Amino acid sequence: MIIISSLGLILITCIIIWKACDGFEMASNYLGRNMKEGVKGATINAIGSSLPELFTTLFFLFVLKDRDGFSGGIGTTAGSAVFNAMIIPAVVILVVIGKGISSKIEISRKVILRDGISLIIAELALIFVITGTSLNWTHGLILMVLYFVYVAYMLMSQGAGDIENDYDDAADGGNRTVALFKGDLATVVLGDSKINKTKAIALLVVSVLFIGLACFWLVEACEQFGNAIGMPIYFVSVILASAATSVPDTIISYKDAMKGNYDDAVANALGSNIFDVCFALGFPLFLFTLIYGPIEMSAHTIENVSQLRVLLLIFTVLVFFIFVFAKNGVRRLHAKLLLLLYALFVAYSIGKGISDDIPVISEISDFLLKISGWVKI
């Protein structure tokens, strides 16, 4: 019964996160309407759609208050990064081609190189920063600084001049009480009036509050589910929490792709990953250790975290090369390859969570630990 109820709660949190991020998307689109395509996707859209990962990591740390909380946080951010890098581009490719919108998707090589290389650098930093048995606020600060450098570069890369993009999105209007029960936060805040800067900020704040509430429930549900099936919270977060928090990224990228904004669709996924790795993990780590002191990790936790970081880097490099060498556009074959890679990641995570004694899982685990040792040398 606990397994069913916890899975049901995870599903409910997915719906709340999805609805709340719709309101956040409307507000962020208005506030970022003068940004170039690709830049908006990698910054405003990416931050907005990655708020669930940030809140989930915060709650994992501050609710569990131990190394399990940290492992749950890194499991969510890293698992979400793998989801974003593979599932989101695959969904965009298959939907666009499946609906006959285009036979292939052309993505700016500049966007792929810029965000892809930035993400690889961020993941290498994660491997070098999260080392040893003790973590403190300086580790979180280093990751956050990396993200601020990335955002500063993105904003400066826009160049001079204003970009006036059309903005025709609006709330559905109607009864605000009914809208609240439907999860239509845009109507709750805007009513029948048009959006402006003040109302956009108000909608942003309300959306963030609902996202935070849903993420708190998500952490509770994942903890209950893990206890019920006897699986460490780390592995539950890698699969379930990461997928749940990636719902907004998927929806925003899908909507951008339907508008033909393929650069924003991919930049959102990659930019979200950079936010996840650097800020959604760095800020909670910084804040928690500043308040409660260093996090002491067990040898088992260090082993799991080390393997996940290396696995994340390997998959990111593979996806990067898939896009780089798709010079004539990405097609259905590329999407299937991305889905296969994600299926392998999930299979390994489930196998590792069940037992370390499964032969194939054990061999892969040893291989990842060796690579982790080489990278740090």
From TrEMBL:
Alphabetized Pfam families for the sequence: Na_Ca_ex
Top-level taxon in the UniProt lineage: Bacteria
Main location: membrane
GO terms under biological process: intracellular calcium ion homeostasis
GO cellular component term of the entry, any: plasma membrane
Keyword Transmembrane helix in annotation: yes
Subcellular location, record wording: Membrane
Keywords, sorted A to Z: Membrane, Transmembrane, Transmembrane helix
Gene3D superfamilies per UniProt: NCX, central ion-binding region (1.20.1420.30)
Membrane-crossing segments per the record: 81-99, 111-131, 137-156, 200-219, 231-252, 273-295, 307-326, 333-351
Residue ranges of domain Sodium/calcium exchanger membrane region in the record: 6-155, 200-350
Transmembrane found in the keyword field: yes
Membrane topology per record: Multi-pass membrane protein
InterPro entries the record matches: K/Na/Ca-exchanger (IPR004481), NaCa_Exmemb (IPR004837), NCX_ion-bd_dom_sf (IPR044880)
One MF annotation (Gene Ontology) recorded for this entry: calcium channel activity
Segments forming a coiled coil: none
Protein name as catalogued: Pseudouridine synthase
Species for this entry: Flavivirga eckloniae
